[in-house]
Every structure is written in structure tokens, then in C-alpha cells.
């Protein structure tokens, strides 16, 4: 689980790095900069919480028998999707304060950050090898 926790941390950091890039890339080009930023923060916060829930769910599923683990995984995956959809749809009702398309960008950050995890791991391994070579 140590590797899983490190991957969770890397993914959450990746979500917020992507959020920073999205905010910096668009905040100056919108008429409602506060709503733009709040939308990205809401989406990224939801994505981060969904990653924590995924980590907790996987921890539980490792201790369950196979059939129960599969069912639990399906239910939790559906729950995460429903929560993300509810946050996105809810943003349309408060679109004066929170821009829905930046909420979507924040939620999508979870997918982009997860795709980047192998690159984080490769970079971490390279840094460790370089450190070990210098120590010799």
C-alpha cells in the first residue's frame, strides 16, 4: 500500500498542477475571473476527493473475497461517477459564481493526472538512480 499511497499523492499533486495551468491559461481571457477560478477549484477539489475515495475503496476491496470485491468496486465506481455528475450539473445552477466548463476541466484533471503517473514514477526512479550513483 506504500506504492499506492505514493501514487495517490502524485495524482493529487498532478490534479492541482493541471488546475494551476488551466487557471493561469484562461483567467485573463474571461469576463468572470472569480467564477472561472472557483469552477476550476471546485472541479479539482472534487477530483481530489474522488481519488481519496478510490484509494480507500481499493484498500477495502483488497480484503474482500473476489466476488464481493468486484461488486464493491462497481458500486463505488458508480458512486464516484454520480458524485462527479452531480457536481457538474450543480455548477449549471450556480453558473453565476462557478463556471461549469472549468468544473469539467477540474474533473478531467483526475484523468490527465492518472495518465501522467507513469512519468512521475519514471522520473522518481531516475532521480533515485542518480542519487545512488552519486553516493557510490
Explain what this protein looks like in three dimensions.
This protein is mainly α. It is built from 4 helices and no strands. Helix 1 runs antiparallel to helix 2 (33-61) and helix 1 packs across helix 4 (100-135). The radius of gyration is 18 Å and the shape is flat.
Please give a quick description of this structure.
With 136 residues, this protein is an all-alpha fold. Helices cover 87% and strands 0% of the residues. It contains four helices and no strands.
Topology, element by element:
Blueprint: H1 2-26, H2 33-61, H3 66-93, H4 100-135
Helix pairs in contact: 1-2, 1-4, 2-3, 2-4, 3-4
User: Into which percent range does the helicity of residues fall?
Assistant: over 70%
* Rg (C-alpha, Å): 18 Å
Mean pLDDT: 91
How far apart the termini lie comes to 30 Å
Shape: flat
Order of helices and strands: HHHH
Number of beta strands = 0
Number of helices: 4
Largest sheet: none
Q: Strand portion, in percent? A: under 5%
**Helix-strand makeup class:** mainly alpha
- Are there runs of 5+ residues with pLDDT below 50, and where? none
Keywords:
single chain, 136 residues, mainly alpha, 4 helices, flat
Amino acid at each position: 500500500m506504500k506504492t499506492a499511497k505514493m501514487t495517490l499523492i502524485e495524482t493529487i499533486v498532478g490534479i492541482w498542477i493541471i488546475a494551476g495551468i488551466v487557471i493561469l491559461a484562461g483567467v485573463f481571457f474571461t469576463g468572470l475571473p472569480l467564477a472561472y477560478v472557483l469552477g476550476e477549484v471546485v472541479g479539482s477539489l472534487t477530483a481530489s476527493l474522488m481519488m481519496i475515495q478510490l484509494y480507500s475503496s481499493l484498500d477495502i476491496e483488497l480484503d474482500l473475497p473476489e466476488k464481493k470485491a468486484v461488486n464493491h468496486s462497481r458500486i463505488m465506481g458508480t458512486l464516484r461517477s454520480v458524485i462527479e455528475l452531480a457536481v457538474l450539473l450543480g455548477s449549471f445552477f450556480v453558473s453565476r459564481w462557478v463556471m461549469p466548463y472549468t468544473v469539467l476541466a477540474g474533473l478531467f484533471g483526475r484523468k490527465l493526472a492518472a495518465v501522467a503517473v507513469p512519468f512521475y514514477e519514471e522520473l522518481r526512479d531516475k532521480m533515485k538512480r542518480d542519487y545512488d550513483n552519486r553516493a557510490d
